[in-house]
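Practice problem: Response regulator
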Amino acid sequence: MIANTKGSYRILIAEDEPLIMRNIATKIENATNKFEILYAENGKEALDVIEALQPQVLFTDIQMPQMNGIELIEQVSRKYPRIQIVVISGHDEFDYAQQALRCGARDFLLKPLDTDDIRKTLSRIFAQLDQEKASFEKEQVHSALQTGEIVQQNIALQDSVFQLFLIQIGHLANASYSSGLAGFFDNLWLQVNRSKAIPTLLGDVEDWWLVDQLPFHGKYLVIKTEEAVIQQPLVCADALLAAVREQVEPYSVTIVHAAEPAKLDRLWSTSQGLKVAMEKGVALGRSAILTNTGKARDLPSAWIDPNTQHKLVSFIQGNKRVNFNKELRSLFEHWTEQAYPQKWIEKKLQHLIQIVHQQAIHFSDEEIFHLEYDMLNTLYTAADFPSIFERVLTLLENTAFLNEEHLSEGAEELTHSIESYLKTNFAHPITLEDIAAKFNFDSSYLTKIFKKYKQMTPIKYLISLRMDEAKRLIQQHPELSFKEIGAIVGYPDSHYFSRIFKNMTGQNLSDYSEGMKLQGE
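Answer key — structure tokens:
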């Protein structure tokens, strides 16, 4: 058992004739330098070498002492199915060669060996091994990064270190929130020419992976490298940000990089640090580079301060829409200037909805949940800060101020048209602004006339349609999960679906389902 060349993979030659063995090795060396060559003089010794050194390729003669080539091939195919087996045979052993192929050999070469034949065979094998290696390493890296589990020990990966970056295009959006969000973020990532944005930044580094980061639709960039050639992460992050941002404008890009490279078994814990830094650092509409070791920013309370609350309540009670609008704009402009993190602003907006809801007594709890749902969808998918707040401002104003406007002629007919539209499209994403755009009327006016004739707002009517369909599906299709039913009726986020269902029916989903089962018995 002697190794006489260095290469990416190992070939074991099992041959009992030393001169023939040396001749085979020489021709392999002349054909390629990509394999390290190992030797065994019989089948039994070959099995010992395979167990000890795990070669990827076996060249074996058929006629050998102690254990012949057929027996060797049968055992290797059973114990080590990933090994590529090539049979070396003479013309008078052709029947044995066919038997070897049936037992698991991938190819056979006739004696005397031709260098061109060996080169073609090894070229095919090398390409297949490279493909299998890439697939295996990808599986290893994905598992280590997403679960912390090492699927199988791998010397090459264990001896490497990994630079880790977390890339977020746009804003943070929970993967379970809406089925449409997945497509939205997928389309953003499709705009990124990865062959331009990533490999050109890495120099000679060939092994890198993009791994999905859930629940926020980001991606980890994992770069396998050696400690001696580690690039400065900040330099790489700067170039990466510029390359990705150029391709996804006007959407912002946020990158968090690990300050130090990590071994395979530390990828998961490092990724969690990047995730936390991303959640704390993403600012709406602003691109940035962050690090997982940076000190968290000191933030003021996420609740609206009492003085601002008092003014907003006074404006609502006094029907001073202009003042209300001006106060919110001032608030939003301050948040913009300070570049507060997205998650902090989400809490602020949710508190604003609570304040408005306490004054807008004509809106039910489920309508407010629907409002929050619309607001977050706007926040997740908007490209910049101003467009987010223009949309949110409209939502809040339409909730806080339901003006007693004069009803025009045709209001009842318009109400019937809106009703028909909602009945036909209730399973699709619909906002009050969508309805207003559809019928070319102000949203406050539509709410007013619809409530006059239907005794509920358009959004309350939309929710009722969805809940009626949900109850029907629960009763008639018990095989469907609550998440599936929620998605069917227009609420892909199971959290909001369950909240709205309970407020509308007075029961949670499980209790309602059990009640339907008991009635059917």
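Discussion: The longest helix spans residues 115-146. Students who identified this feature from the tokens alone can consider the problem solved.
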